[in-house]
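To: structure subgroup
Subject: Chain for Friday's discussion

All,

I'm putting the inputs and outputs inline so they're searchable in the archive.
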Amino acid sequence: MGMSTRSSSAGQATPSGSGLTVLLGLLPWVVVIAFAAEGFGLSKAAGAAQDRAVDRARDFVAGLLSGSGPFEVDGDPVELMGEEEGRVWAVAVSPDGRSLAVVTGSVPPKMEGPGGLRLYDFDASSGKPTLRRAIASASGIRCVAYSPDGATLATGGFDEAVSLRDAGSGEVRTTISGFGGGVNGLAFSPDGSTLATACLDGKVQLWGAEDGGAIATLGSHGEPAFSVAFSPDGSLVASAGVDKVARLWDVAGRRQRSELEGHTETVEGLAFSPDGKALATGGWDGMIRTWDTASGEERSAFNAGGVRPVLALDYSPDGSTLVAAGGGADSSPAKLFDAESGRERSSFQTGSNWVSALRFDREGKRLVVGGNSFALAVWDATAPAAPPEKLAEVRATDRPTRGQEITLALAFSPDGMTLAAGGETGLITLRDVVNGRLVGSLSGHDDAVTAIAISPDGGSLASASFDGTARLWDLASGRARAVLEGHRDMVLALEFSPDGSALATGGYDGEILLWDASSGDRVAALPGSEVSVRALAFSPDGSRLASAGADRVVRLWDLDAREQLAELPGHQGAIRALAFGPEGRWLASASEDRTVRRWDLDGDELREQVEFPPHNEMIWAMALSPGGGTIASGDYQGFVQFREAGGTSKSAAKSHREHEGGVTALAFSPGGRTLASAGFDKKIKLWHSRPPRLSSRATAEDHEGQVHFGLLSPDGRTVATGADDAKVVLRDARTLEPIRVLEGHSSGVGSGAYSPDGSTLVTAGLKGHEVIAWDVATGAERGRFGGEGPAISSVAVSPDGSTVATAAGRAVTLWDLGTFSAIRTIDGPKEPVKSVRFSPDGTLLAGAVGDWRFGRPGAAWIWDVGSGEARATLLGHGRHCWAVDFAPDGKTVASTSGDGTVRLWDVSSASLRASFEVGDANPRPVRFSPDGTLLVVGHGKGEVTLWDVAAGRRAVALSGHDDLILGVDFSADGERIVSTSKDGTVRLWDLRGPSPSFGKALRGIALRVLDAARSGEAEADEDGPGH
């Protein structure tokens, strides 16, 4: 690998060329750090006292996130993943064998995510697919099928509809609606007149393929149905799903013909033999079974040999070969079996650990395989006894592949939710910080991107490049607004002014140029130096600019006068990064001489220079937390050091090595609680700071035994608690002092719920089926109900106060709260229901299902309250499910599980939105804040944590309990949390502001709260809004 150079006045080598050659030669001189704007964009509510109270609580939590204190690394950094961002979910081969229809989507599948429908011209002789058209989808397409004449494509997905499309263009001609859940599978009848569908609600239905009219509902699996297929003669429909059963339906008689039992887990693979006499099924249990379609009897059963789960099956056109693929450890094999005997003929490694799509072409000579990372491959299957040869492979997406380039620049969006990255290819990627999903890309530079900055309002992104240009991008449209040309060589640094009106750029030519950030017009030039400028920083008030580079000197500029104010010499190597501290009273710099320095300023004069203990190797990147509390620096060996910005020359740094090779870029999130790092190992990692801890405002210890729940009344004045001692206690919500004790239960009290108006409290005992409705004002019993049955695990009251739901064993019962009579019992789950919650509009009921004793995967269920029918089963937890809660807008359900995760589910599509690793194998109760921005979670070791829903990370830890948390609840105004524990205590947490001692300990984190603490207002505000 060669590199040409030319000499410079400083006697340094200047590489020419592009790509990794230039990168390796020039990287020590490249500025690779960009700072996002400060601020949270918190809402400014006006009007109702409750709205103001919610905002005050959010202000406080945002303050805790603001990053003024030291950045204390919380565990190992997490790689910002991207390879698993998408998958080929389904493939259809046109009847003439000349086209492929490919469905791609997110992992796990959901409404919003990368993917859509891609149409390929398919050369069967060479096996090469050529993209004809890509159709992006915002509705989560899941399945696809060609009509027998090849003129129509049918697609179905999470929008609870089927689209009938022109097969050539992909344009929608007709939409079929009326499904009770997302469409997982579909198939055309052999004559093309009918379409069969399998849905998340478990139903198998028939529709007219021409007009989309409903023909019949054949029946239901009772749990989500995944697959459906017509027999070759059209007389039968086969379906399979979560209930571990495949079913054969008589199309003419509209009835079930056979129930094919034998699999021990979900059945997803499904294929009729070409003669229609056999049906093959593949299960998550790793087994393949074949069935006689006439009698429904099992013909054979054999292990898929390393394919588990079996997700896709297909017969060769001559019926002699059955191919299977699915999941695997690192690379799932595809297996070819003799269709009659089940003997394995050959196998091949697909290169993907999850294969969801598998199809023979019409002649049986080619196998089309689709899997993770948008991989779409074509294999030669002409010799079934020999391992197939891969003929072609394409990546079924327009999105770039993560991990294939060295990242040189990073920047967070002002809301902290998106991370922009640029590197050696010149492409800029935008990724969701929570799940790593690519949300956009900006293409236009002809060489490596060296620096990135995002405007304070989040609307624009600026980038600098080896190609000699800077560019301004509109982030809403993804288009370049302006190309900034003026430097005579590579552009190495750039920075937005604090108000976003100006942009400064620095280049290898030694010049500093100022630009109008709106128009892209050049405004002025500062002389800079004779050698490259590699770092720039605006002062917080925007009046000064600091610059530095290869001449080892920091310069301060007056931007109004366009004059140099001062020079700060001292470094012994080129300076790589600069950052002003709060109020511009000091400046930090990082250099190739291995040191970070702090320059304390008195106006424009240097008051003191502090040289921190050095790295062992030269520094390539530096970032300052937004509050100015922490300096992070990264070096050539891959170490990231964290040091207190206000330290002395003897202050030790905390050092972590997480990159193989040098650290190339660092950037703090606007809140200062997350650091992004990039390195030569082509990885981007996110470092999270340990969340602040808050002590409880009040504690009650008067129950005997475990306290199972604590509920804040709707008016915020009372807390109700229930415990092993069979007592229900009503307490003052400010002090937790008892107001009234309600006695009447014959055993411990395990669950409770207030009516919406707070006049009634419903509680359930731990033994038997005992439920009591209490008059809160008098403490008298309004009524008892429940009767015989297993112990009740959870109760909930509907939003209109008319209905009570109780969970007991495997059933949920709905009761009329006026008459105390049962309305209906909802059955379905095969394991106990542990928790139930009504949706905000009262039409749906969510339940947590699972049995902790057996270690099996649990699920969250959603039922229709009016009909009692299951609307969705939310699968994905690896262990039992403990608790559920609806978000205030009813669009999301949160669930906790023994697998150590909290998962957020989209209600309309029944798909996973996000999953939080909570760092505890036993998260139990969960509640959304009234505005839906926070989750409170109770943990197995006595910790209560607040989670930022949007960011997917812990915001605050609430410490005080000594054992398992059994109950948590938010007040209606969002200002307080109550928690109960196995340790026998009840604790009240006040989010309006910490105690004065806490405020002093976290001085500067939240100015509003701190001021209140200093003046005593935090204590005096006990009777503010919400009381």
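Points worth raising on Friday:
The chain has a mean pLDDT of 84.
The longest strand covers residues 128-136.

D.
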